[in-house]
């Protein structure tokens, strides 16, 4: 309501300078131009707001350099970098744009220049013109209202994201109820040589989850799954997963859901929160009767006459709040590339029983996929597990790329661009496929989808323009 | 357009005056609305609490006994007379203390057991009893080759009451005698106990135990009954599986109270393998004729006979 009187003021400005909603800050010549364009906004330094950036367009190379140095400094200390409140907020304050832009631009050194070369046709010239416009406004009595408006807009642009993230992280927002456990440093490069591509996959994947966790206020635990000696016995290898989940549960005593994510994954729709996407409607989207999709042909429900009603029911007790583990099935059975576990007595017991020497001694030749096969076995044979496991259709949490489970095109399994798939799991990409190029492709799709609305409008306008007047190849550079 | 209006201050003054007058008039109304709102919230809260508690804990139907005695009988191989003695012994005890008996037939579980030894029948039998008596709290499994010799002792006062259990629980002792490196938890509280076992001279004893109904029981029994344990050829079948589970899985061990053998599991003098002070003495709750069915030189019916007579004489005297 308060803003209503201001609208005439605002509506006057566009003919003067820009089609966007710029704010003619008196001293902000440098700020008003690159600060609002998409490319530099993500990495505009804090000082860019206070003093005009004399470099103008050459600030781009500075941004790229900073992004690069961020990686270098950022990688080894990823778990501790968000510690201080100030360092955290400083980063947020400096980020005018939604956070996914950061992930889409900076994490990779290969393309920064190419990306900027893509060229948004805005120059810094408009900023100076709007400055003159501001000087004329100074003489009028509406100045106060204008400043209020500017403050609101600036506050919105600069602080809203950080405010939102802080809220989500707080106990009201509920973000701290979720912990993402991301596997990294698989086998520590012991078994295979770790080349540039492996490092790039790792860096990008971690960055992707960091951005997601920060945006929604979740905790991210990047775990080091290097081949420890204690797991190198043939019966114990890859049981690290179980131990890690247990350790993480101990580390975050107030979190409720723990989301295990493999390294070769990419969150495409970072605009989905786990609450909205899954847990607020778990009862509607999950199925507990495995007959809905049963690639392993597990006979369900258990039929033993000595079992109680809940154990013999195909859907357990039917109450979504009793689901303690959420996972998906691919074409060959359970998929543990992305699954959720709730902290509970039940999950403690499952994590305890998951590895048993007597069972593993008899089956270690058969259980090629180790803990995955073991879980399938336990699910099949121990009714207490069944009544607390919920399955999600695969594409809710675990879409596959073509090459995993067939060559693509299966609507139950494979990623479809533009259909709102949450996350893609490049399952098996290290066996004869190219993890890095696949990850790169999904990164591109994410960038495409998460363009800010300004770019979308622009692209649409360009599209329309090209449709009517033919394609123009020489896009203005500055 | 709005900027053409007169300066704000002139507008504000009358506004303030009017609002204060209004609040004076409305104070009573507002108070009433506030009280009404508060009352509604309070009523809603109370009602929701009421309904929550009524749906949250299912109430047991009248006449449900708190304890069920589980016995597995082999009607195909044992004489009717022997079975009749076993059931009579347990029924008298149940009558005296208001317990319920659950007599399971081993033949019911034979298809499930497949080639595993029949002694595994204990596990589905207890699960079966729990399914049949969903509101009973405790389940006392007692091997068929055993008699309850001191029916005047109720299981509550003898074992299950918190203070009693606290004094009976063996803390920080090897789970499997004589020297397992895994020991029972030293900080265990009686309210955390879901499973009460005893050991004989060689291992944990699966012939006499008490288990509490609930999620733990399902978990524990399902794990115990896992096909891979049944097919593993443990020398002592389900007994060794029990040893294995409790030594390898701390979440199960955390719910176990170990008690001395004679509390629920005294062996007759003919039985081998009793632990230290594990042989039956007069006044003990139960006597087990451990191994009488597997040892070809022994005969369960004959061994039980003198004790059965002693028990029925006492029953008449009471």
Question: What features would you describe in this structure?
Answer:
- The complex is a heterodimer of chains A (478) and B (318).
- Chain A has 22 helices and eight strands.
- Among the domains of chain A are: 140-169; 175-456, Spore Coat Polysaccharide Biosynthesis Protein SpsA, Chain A (Alpha-Beta Complex), CATH 3.90.550.
- Chain A has 478 residues and is α/β, with parallel strands linked by helices.
- With 318 residues, chain B is of the alpha/beta class.
- In chain B, the strands form two sheets. A six-stranded mixed sheet of chain B has the order 2-1-3-6-5-7, with helices on both faces. In chain B, strands 4-9-8 form a three-stranded mixed sheet.
- Chain B has a single domain (67-317), classed as Alpha-Beta Complex (Spore Coat Polysaccharide Biosynthesis Protein SpsA, Chain A).
- Chain A binds chain B through residues 5, 8, 141-142, 304-309, 311, 345-346, 348-349, 352-353, 356-359, 362-363, 377, 381-385, and chain B through 1-3, 108-109, 112, 124-125, 127-128, 130-131, 134, 215-216, 218-219, 222-223, 226-229, 231-232, 244, 248-252.
- Chain B: It holds the Pfam family Glyco_transf_34.
- Chain B: It comes from Aspergillus caelatus.
- Chain B: Keywords: Glycosyltransferase, Membrane, Transferase, Transmembrane, Transmembrane helix.
Strand order of the largest sheet of chain A: 2-1-3-6-5-7
Mind telling me the CATH superfamily name of chain B? Spore Coat Polysaccharide Biosynthesis Protein SpsA, Chain A
- Name the CATH class of the domain at 175-456 in chain A: Alpha Beta
Q: Indicate how many domains the architecture of chain B comprises.
A: 1
Give the CA-based shape of chain B: elongated
Helix content, binned percent of chain B: 40-55%
Number of strands of chain A: 8
CATH homologous superfamily caption of the domain at 175-456 in chain A: Spore Coat Polysaccharide Biosynthesis Protein SpsA, Chain A
Largest sheet of chain A: 6 strands, mixed
Largest interface comes to: A-B, 29 and 31 residues
Q: Radius of gyration of chain B, rounded?
A: 31 Å
SS-derived structural category of chain A: alpha/beta
The CATH architecture of chain B can be given as Alpha-Beta Complex
The N- and C-terminal alpha carbons of chain A lie at a distance of: 39 Å
Q: How much of the polypeptide of chain A forms β-strand, as a percent range?
A: 5-15%
Rough shape of chain A?
globular
Q: Tell me which oligomeric state these chains represent.
A: heterodimer
GO molecular function, one term (chain A): glycosyltransferase activity
Biased composition (Low complexity) (chain A): 11-22, 33-48
Transmembrane segments (chain A): 143-161
Protein name (chain A): Alpha-1,6-mannosyltransferase subunit
